[in-house]
Structure formats: C-alpha cells, structure tokens
C-alpha cells in the first residue's frame, strides 16, 4: 500500500514523490488534497495533490522539508511505503472558461498549481503563470507549466532566473498590460496575503488555496479553521480554496504558528 | 426471553435465597483508583468488580417475571439472563448471553449511562426505592472476565448467504451493525476514514475511561466473525456509494458519525490555545500526542477551561488534569442539575479536583501579542423558566461579568453531522441540520442505503448508536430477503 514508485529531488529541501494510490488517482480532481502519516507515531499532515495518473494508479506529491513530519516524508525512498495516505479531500477547484487567468505560485505551492493551470487551459482560458522563488535553484516545474500556459513569467528574489522581484511584481506587470478576469494563487500564506492585497486594489477576483494545520482532514477537529468574510470556515471541508479577498490572512498566519515551539523542540528526531 | 427464565437451573437458583435476603444485600461499590493518584495518570479509573463482589451483587437481582430493566436498554440485552449466569458462577455463559445482543459488552459496561437506562427501570429503583442492581458493573465484569480468561467465544454465524454489505464508519453504530449482519450470514466490509478502527471509542473516549485494548479485543472478535476492515478509505471521497454498488454491495449502512465541532462564534475564539474537544481529544487519544515519541504536538495548559457540561467536556477536563494542568475548570451556562454528563463522570471529575464554574458563559477571549489566549470574560447567569429542552433556561445577570486567566480553552458545546456522505450521494434526503432522514427501520430515501448513530441523531450516546446499528441490521436483512 502507498508504495513510492519514483523520487526526484528538486532542490536540497524540496522532493517530488510519486506514490501508488489507485483509488485516489482515479477520484481526485485539481485542487484536492490528501492526508499522509509516516510511521506509527507519525503526525497527520495535509498535502495538496500535484498530479495524478489514473491509468498507472499513482499520485504525485511535492514536499518541502519544514518540520519533523515533512522531513520524515522527504527521507523516504523508492520502494518504501507511506504508513497512511487518505483522500482525495476538500472541494475541487471550480473550473470554467473565465477568460484570462493569472496563476501565481510560490515555493512548493507551484506543485498543486500545476493541475489547476492544466485544467484552466483545457477549459479554454488564456493562462499566464507567474512562478516565484528565492533563487534559480528553487524554481520548480517550469517546463511542465510552459506546456499548459500561454506565458510563464519567472520571478526570483535575486534575479538569478527570469526577472528580479516578487510574485506581485510579475502579476502587476500583466495587469498593467491586459485585462485579467481571475487570479489563482498558491504559496506561502504571506505571499498569498500580498497577492490578495494587490488584486483587491485592481478589483480582480482571486482564489487562494490554503494550507493550514489539520488533524483528521475530514471536518472533525476544527484545527484548520480560518475567518472568511467574518465567518469561521473549515479549510478541510469548506475549502481549501476561498475568495482570497475575504480571507483574514493575518489570523491565518498567526494560527499557522500555533505549535512553532513544540515543532522546533521536536526537530531532534530527524537530525 | 421469558422462556429461558423457566429453565430448571434458573428456577432452582431463585429458590436458593428468599427475596427478603436478596433485597437486604447492599449495592456493590465500584473499585476505583485513588483520586489523588489517578488524576495524573492515564490508567483506567474504574478497576472493575472482583469475582466475589460480582457473585454477591448478582444475588440482588430478583429475576423478575417481567424484567422492566430490559425495556430501559436500547439494545434489549437479556439482563436477568446474564446476571443469573453470573450468580451460578457460569461467567463465560453470561458473556455469551451479552454477546447475543451486544457487539461491544465491555464497552457498554463502561460508558453507558445506566442510571438513565436499565438501572432506572430496575425493580429496586421503581418499587423498593432502593439502589438499583449494578447492571453496568456486572456487564463489564462478565465481558472482562471472558477476555482475561482467554476463552473468548465467537458468536454463532449463519451460513454465508453470498451478499456483500458495506458499512461506512467503524464507531459504535457501525461495529454493532457489522456484528449483527455477520451473524446473519452477510459478508461485511467496514470502511473507516481514519487510520484506526473504532471511531469515537478510539479518538474520543480517553484511556482512563475506556482503554484501547478493551476496544481492540471487541474489534478482533468481529474480525474472527469474518468482518473485513478497510482503513484510510472515505466513502464519498476515495470511493463513492455508486462504486460500492458497482462492486456488488447490496446494502450500505452509513454510520459516519458527528463531524463538525460547534463553536460559539464569540470574539477571540480563533486565538491560539482555543480548540474543539474533538481536536484536543483526537490529539491525545488517537495521535498519542502527550507521548514524547509522538510527532503530533499538544499544548499542556496550566489554566485550562472546558466549555460545556456533557460527557465530552468531562473527558476533556479530566484529560487536561492528566496532562499536568494546575487548574482545570468546567464552564457551564446552566446549573449542575441540568448537566447532560453521566453522574459518575461528574463525581469523578470533582474528586480529581476539577473546578465547576456553573452558571457562567464565555462571552470573549483575550490574547497576547503572539495571538495566544490569556484571559476569558465570563457572563454570570441565573436560571429562568424551562425552555424547549425541558431544562430551566439560563438568563444573563446584567453587569455580572468576570475575567479569569486561561492559557488553554477546550470548546465542547456539541457537534454537527459530518457532511461528507450527505454531500456526495445524489437524491439522499437530509434535514436542514444535515442529518440523514430515515424511517423506523433506519432506511434512507435511497432504499439500499441505511443510516444510524450521530449522522442520524446529530449527537447522542454510544449505546443509542449501537441500538441504531441493531435496528438497521434487522431491517436491512428483511429488505434484502424480500
């Protein structure tokens, strides 16, 4: 069960795993996530599905080493099994022909953005993809993105690839030259906050895919709750995608730090 | 049931003692761990009865011609039947009687609210105004005795009828249904979303009240009866009800439980350190988060407030004590009399040092610069006229507001049904609250789909869920044989 069939290292801290999961591969859609657990004492963590091959019966996950659980997952090799893998969870991305869509991804958020870019392109949209990373080595999936995008703009903090600047600079460049009907963004919460602030200024509808702390992932615990339009929502069953302009990103950022001390204290386990 | 009362050994047993002698025996006291010790450890609080105690307590039962206790039991356990077997020393036989009607006797003996069910209908209580026979303690004794004896009996199973049945969820309703259907000869597969079988018995009820090993033995028993379990599989997500039909399943029983925890929607409720009882108990029970080897983090609050007065609130507050809280408080807006928790849980919590802030209702949480909760504001209440629930309703006392220090708050004010199945099955009739609509045979608007437990009731007890499982099994059996 859940055997790893291929592994690729994107960078020092980012790994791509292709995992046997025939039922999930068949039923998942763009935007869905899974919960994984590594080891009998492992934690349940959510990961958005980056790709799936229904015929082969596999799904692809892209993981960044952040804490104990993600590091354990990254250290698994081809042939190893993931203790638990369950999904697909959450609501699928709403796909239709919106017109021109800017898809903005940062860090490992680029991975779950890929199936959305593909689905939007297939629905007839003009898709402009903005990929952001700290430097050249951390830009991932650029070639795959080019396959389904009308244009790809790469932004790096140090200018080592594409243009120098932040994801918001890339988006604004597009907004200034053409009409944008929708923006989809996935990345670190702080990045999505600033993308949302930018597109709000230009009144462009924006969807953000959120990755919060979860335990069960099926609506049972409420650890993932955030405030959207003044109301409490559960990312696992109401999301993971929300109208970015309604999301209280500051509260979300605060809640993401809930277990920072405990997590850091636990890092001895993987050193 | 009355028939087995007339078997020779029962008649002889009744003659061994006069009713006057029987009724003069005082009710047995449960052996408990000392409150000071147990409040800091996870060991089971109730230690069970010794065989000597059980044999004496069993003598108190008068083996009534009309055993009213059975009417108080949602699964109609043959109560005098098992108790009289204990009295004559045939404990394994007593366990067998229990298992005729209950898939989980060791669980029921521990967590059922007997004082509101069987024991409330006992002749002692009804007519003699004395303490009821300790039916729950005896049930637990018989089940534990069988488990510890190593001679666990597997109920008789009818010849396989070749029909496949799917169960969604492995909590009390699903397990009870699975057991009954397996006995009737069906091939049963139970699908569970989590990585452990047992549902609320594993993630919800703590070790000190219901040890996991007790639940595991009951699950093993179902496996021995041929029930298959599939973990990490969410019906409605991983596979659909349609997929199950296509794979030849003739009936589906949905027992997916209570999903979404309720919050109060008051200011500051999303601060760090405030969480649902589902999250808190799942971290501690299912994920073993208080064990340093576990990767799942947990707060160990010093001043912990638990909001609510039900069994889940008692489980949470007593868990907080065991994780080292200096002050563990129940905050409840009505008075103790209206509390829905079992009497025993309230008693145990008090003995262990839990503070009860009744007639208090939280109105606001205040946090520090990191977003961690530090204080809560409480509105004091008084009781007014009875409300729709029949309980006296709490009314705010104007201006009576106090502030207390807290660094962890567990919100335990109820749950809403899990939306995964209702949202994924086309044509399934649900109530505005999201519970599945069923007829008296637990059948939904889709004939092959039955449902029971919290997904139908919206939040009830283990035993009511098990009762639903039994009723659904009986009704589905009839439906499939038509």
How many helices of chain A? Answer: 9
Number of domains of chain A: 2
End-to-end gap of chain A: 27 Å
Class from secondary-structure proportions of chain B: alpha/beta
CATH topology name of the largest domain in chain A, in short, is Rossmann fold
Largest beta-sheet details of chain B: 5 strands, parallel
Radius of gyration of chain A: 18 Å
Helix content of chain B: 25-40%
**Rg of chain B (CA only):** 23 Å
Could you tell me the strand content of chain A as a percent range? 25-35%
- The CATH architecture category of the largest domain in chain A equals 3-Layer(aba) Sandwich
Strand order of the largest sheet of chain A: 11-10-9-8-12-13-16
Give a structural overview.
The complex is a heterodimer of chains A (271) and B (482). Chain A is of the alpha/beta class and 271 residues long. Helix content of chain A is 28%, strand content 31%. In chain A, helix 5 packs parallel to helix 6 and helix 6 packs antiparallel against helix 8 (249-256). Chain A is globular, with a radius of gyration of 18 Å. The mean pLDDT of chain A is 93. Chain B has 482 residues and is α/β, with parallel strands linked by helices. Chain B has 20 helices and 17 strands. Chain B has helices at residues 2-5, 8-15, 19-23, 35-38, 51-60, 79-87, 91-101, 105-111, 123-128, 135-149, 172-183, 200-203, 212-224, 241-246, 277-286, 311-322, 343-352, 420-424, 454-457, 462-481, and strands spanning 31-32, 46-48, 164-168, 187-191, 228-230, 249-254, 258-261, 274-276, 303-307, 327-332, 355-358, 360-367, 373-386, 392-405, 408-411, 415-417, 449-451. In chain B, helix 16 runs parallel beside helix 17. The radius of gyration of chain B is 23 Å and the shape is globular. The two termini of chain B are 27 Å apart. Classes of the chains: A alpha/beta (271), B alpha/beta (482).
């Amino acid at each position: 069960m859940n055997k790893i069939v291929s592994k690729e290292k994107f960078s020092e801290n980012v790994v791509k795993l292709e995992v046997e999961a025939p039922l999930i591969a068949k039923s998942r859609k763009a935007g869905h996530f899974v919960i994984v657990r590594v080891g009998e004492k492992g934690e349940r963590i959510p990961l958005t599905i980056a790709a799936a091959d229904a015929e082969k019966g596999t799904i692809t996950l892209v993981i960044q080493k952040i804490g104990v659980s993600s590091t354990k997952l990254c250290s698994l090799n081809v042939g190893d099994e993931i203790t638990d893998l369950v999904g697909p969870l959450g609501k699928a991305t709403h796909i239709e022909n919106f017109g021109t869509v800017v898809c903005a991804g940062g860090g490992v958020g680029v991975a779950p953005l890929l199936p959305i870019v593909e689905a939007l392109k297939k629905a007839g949209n003009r898709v402009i993809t903005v990929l952001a990373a700290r430097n050249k080595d951390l830009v991932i999936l650029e070639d795959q993105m080019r396959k389904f995008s009308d244009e790809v703009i790469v932004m790096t903090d140090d200018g080592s690839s594409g243009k120098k600047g932040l994801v918001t600079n890339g988006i604004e460049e597009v907004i200034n030259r053409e009409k944008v009907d929708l923006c989809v963004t996935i990345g670190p919460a702080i990045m999505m906050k600033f993308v949302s602030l930018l597109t709000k200024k230009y009144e462009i509808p924006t969807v953000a895919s959120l990755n919060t702390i979860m335990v069960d992932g099926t609506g049972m615990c409420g650890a993932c709750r955030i405030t959207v339009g003044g109301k409490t929502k559960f990312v696992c069953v109401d999301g993971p995608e929300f109208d970015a302009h309604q999301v209280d990103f500051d509260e979300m950022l605060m809640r993401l730090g809930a277990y920072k001390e405990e997590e850091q204290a636990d890092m001895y386990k993987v050193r | 049931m009355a028939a087995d009362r007339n078997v020779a050994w029962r008649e002889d047993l009744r003659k061994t003692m006069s009713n006057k002698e029987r009724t003069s025996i005082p009710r047995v006291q449960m052996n408990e761990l000392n409150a000071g010790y147990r409040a800091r450890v996870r060991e089971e609080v109730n230690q069970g009865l010794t065989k000597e105690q059980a044999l004496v307590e069993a003598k108190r039962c008068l083996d009534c011609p009309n055993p009213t206790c059975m009417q108080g039991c949602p699964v109609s356990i043959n109560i005098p039947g098992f108790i009289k077997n204990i009295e004559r020393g045939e404990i394994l036989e007593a366990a067998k009687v229990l298992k005729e009607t209950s898939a989980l006797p060791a669980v029921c003996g521990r967590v059922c609210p007997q004082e509101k069910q069987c024991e409330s209908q006992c002749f002692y209580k009804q007519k003699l105004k004395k303490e009821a026979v300790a039916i729950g303690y005896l049930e637990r004794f018989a089940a534990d005795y069988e488990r510890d004896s190593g001679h666990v009996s597997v109920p008789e199973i009818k010849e396989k009828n070749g029909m496949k049945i799917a169960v969604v969820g492995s909590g009390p309703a699903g397990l009870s249904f699975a057991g009954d259907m397996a006995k009737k000869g069906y091939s049963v597969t139970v699908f569970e979303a989590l990585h452990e079988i047992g549902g609320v018995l594993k993630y919800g009820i703590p070790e000190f009240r219901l040890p996991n090993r007790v639940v595991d033995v009951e699950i093993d028993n179902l496996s021995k009866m041929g029930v298959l379990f599939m973990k990490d599989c969410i019906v409605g997500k991983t596979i659909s009800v349609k997929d199950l039909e296509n794979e030849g399943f003739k009936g589906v029983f949905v027992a997916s439980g209570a999903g979404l925890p309720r919050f109060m929607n008051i200011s500051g409720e999303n601060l760090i350190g405030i969480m649902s009882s589902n999250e808190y108990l799942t971290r501690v029970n299912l994920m073993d988060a208080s064990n340093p080897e576990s990767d799942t983090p947990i707060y160990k609050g010093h001043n912990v407030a638990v909001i609510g007065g039900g069994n889940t609130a008692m489980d949470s507050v007593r868990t907080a004590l065991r994780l080292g809280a200096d002050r563990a408080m129940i905050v409840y807006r009505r008075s103790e009399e209206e509390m829905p928790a079992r009497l025993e849980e309230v008693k145990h919590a008090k003995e262990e040092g839990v503070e009860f802030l009744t007639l208090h209702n939280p109105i606001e949480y205040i946090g520090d610069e990191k977003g961690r909760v530090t204080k809560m504001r409480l509105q004091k209440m008084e009781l007014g006229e009875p409300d729709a629930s029949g309980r006296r309703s709490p009314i705010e006392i104007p201006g009576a507001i106090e502030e207390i220090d807290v660094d962890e708050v567990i919100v335990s004010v109820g749950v809403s049904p899990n939306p995964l199945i209702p949202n994924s099955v086309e044509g399934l009739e649900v109530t505005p609250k999201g519970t599945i609509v069923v007829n008296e045979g637990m059948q939904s608007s889709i004939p092959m789909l039955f449902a029971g437990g919290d997904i139908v009731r919206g939040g009830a007890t283990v035993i009511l869920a098990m009762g639903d499982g039994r009723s659904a099994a009986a009704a589905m059996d009839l439906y499939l044989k038509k």
